Please model this.
Amino acid sequence: MNALGLASDARPCLSSLYRMQFEGTQDCWVLLYPEGMVKLNSTAAEILRRCDGQANVQQVITTLERDFAQPDLHDDVCCFLKDAYARGWLV
Model:
């Protein structure tokens, strides 16, 4: 468990209530659910796209740091993941 209350070995996965897809008309990724849609910014989309239930939190962070050549993303990613869990986007 890290300082933000997220287990590093947790394997986040998009909730079955949501479907993530790219909306060309809006030029962004969105989360679709029965009551509506959540428009995602590019950072949120990049994090959620890596939450496949296979990669653990640390692997998601490492992949993002590598793919975007950005060190020290741990706290930002964990903060977002914690919020995404609270909103029910992730299980």
Remarks:
- The beta strands are 19-23, 28-33, 36-39.
- DSSP finds three helices and three strands in the chain.
- The chain has a mean pLDDT of 94.
- The longest strand covers residues 28-33.
